[in-house]
Amino acid sequence: MTRISVGLNLIDCLWSVLALCFLVAFCAHKTSAYLPKLRETSGLFTFFQDLIRYGKTKQNLNRCEWLRVFDVPKRWFWHFYFVSVCWNVFLLVLLLNSTYQQQPYPSWLTWILEILTGVPSNASKGPQLSTVLVQLLFCVHSLRRLLECLFVSVFSDGVLHLVQYVFGLGYYIVLGLTVLCSDHTAKGTGTLLSQLDWIHVAGILLFVGASLLQHHSMVLLARLRTGKSGRVETLAHRMPKGSCFKLVSCPHYFAELLIYISFSLVFGGLSLTWWLVVLYVLFNQALAGQLSHELYISKYNSYPKHRRAFIPFLL
Ligand SMILES: NC(=O)c1ccc[n+]([C@@H]2O[C@H](COP(=O)([O-])OP(=O)(O)OC[C@H]3O[C@@H](n4cnc5c(N)ncnc54)[C@H](OP(=O)(O)O)[C@@H]3O)[C@@H](O)[C@H]2O)c1
Questions:
Q1: Does the global pTM surpass 0.85?
Q2: Domain coordinates of the chain in residue numbers?
């Protein structure tokens, strides 16, 4: 098992900056609630809201026509997972080839990993069970989300900002590289099976539980728009009810956080890089969850008072 290294490399800096950006955006949004004049009159405020909102939370944003030029349909969400499946299965194949056939990574990939980690490739300590498991679980996650986008979710005419769309595509590329970066700095030795630890099993169990929670939440959201026969009856945003929605407005965001925590456990709980990714997901989902929660509260008078935004009893 590896020890946490405190020296920050490029990949750690990247995730720290992203986490900080979303924390600042979350705080700025919360603060703006106390400045109603600014909300109504400032173009900068609208620009900021245009960048942080998407889908249902963007629908009531009063935007000038030129800002709509950058709108991309939210039903393109599947593109993110399609790119993720292609790229991360490719990385998984390279990883398995390097693990079982001792084939080195292509030189361009070695070069990228060296830049991101600041560690020369020959300093790598051999195949890591954690890395193979996380990359495999990440492929499973991306594939499930792709299938959900294509066959479960019912999308309305909501939109994303072009910046969010491009960010989303790049996100899944960088995330796959981040998994491999942990391989460069880890120090597990011996065969893959001999590295198996209780914490890997705990991580996999959490991953399965969180994935089931997220899938169930997606099914419940889709059912808000379909009749008993499965036919789409409306594209309106209704008040989510029942099951995990009793506690939070966005259980699927909570599940997303748990999925990333489960990867951290599979990394032995000691990969600083992956905890920074978890921090990014926490602030990102906190912002999206807060915006959805506020929308539901403003839209439904009967919205349950005890319901939190995305972390039960907490946030
Ligand atoms: N890791 C990351 O950085 C990251 C970032 C963003 C999202 N995600 C994950 O991606 C998944 C999807 O996120 P999302 O923000 O798109 O979720 P979302 O806004 O809740 O949308 C999910 C689906 O449910 C529909 N929907 C949402 N609220 C509804 C309501 N009140 N009534 C009826 N239908 C409703 C949406 O349709 P429309 O919106 O088309 O109306 C969409 O089809 C989540 O699990 C999230 O955790 C991850």
A1: yes
A2: 10-299
